[in-house]
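Notes continue from the previous slide.

Worked example: a multi-chain complex. Inputs as given:
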Amino acid sequence: AQRVTQPEKLLSVFKGAPVELKCNYSYSGSPELFWYVQYSRQRLQLLLRHISRESIKGFTADLNKGETSFHLKKPFAQEEDSAMYYCALGGGTSYGKLTFGQGTILTVHP
Amino acid sequence: NAGVTQTPKFQVLKTGQSMTLQCAQDMNHNSMYWYRQDPGMGLRLIYYSASEGTTDKGEVPNGYNVSRLNKREFSLRLESAAPSQTSVYFCASSEGSRGRQPQHFGDGTRLSIL
């Protein structure tokens, strides 16, 4: 069965500090991993996907198959990064279906 | 460039009333999904439609029905609303491709059941 775990429900940092949002997954096949961001009362937006290996808004995430992790990192957090972040896992049993983690609320203090 | 459009944005119902949430996408996507978002629970899949003409249960289907009206539209129906169905409902779509393509989300419907 597919499972995504985001161990931190809440994460607080100060502006300019590094931030890391953790994501661990359980999946026996070849995973497709995504990070979504949801700003206050807005729709979920795709932030990045592991296959793209790109940096969006200063965020990066590396797939570590040995540790089954896909942690999201940013070296210098900004106040506008405050949002809910979801890690999602695809590539599995049904067309297009994603399994989401429970989300981490990131608050960046001034 | 609308993407995924959900209606209504807000709704208040009384227990026992019925309601249909509408969702339409203009990206020619094959797959569509309905989620509910609750505090501390993240996003939970209610139903999905892998392609036009098919629907399948997700993680929390009880109390809901869906219709994939055509390739563009995927509606969610509450036949007899209960307070436990108070939530924010999101519709999403994707090209399909075994979860290797991202999902695109609508703005959500905030539903309160009194």
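Summary box: Chain B has no helices and eleven strands. The radius of gyration of chain B is 13 Å.
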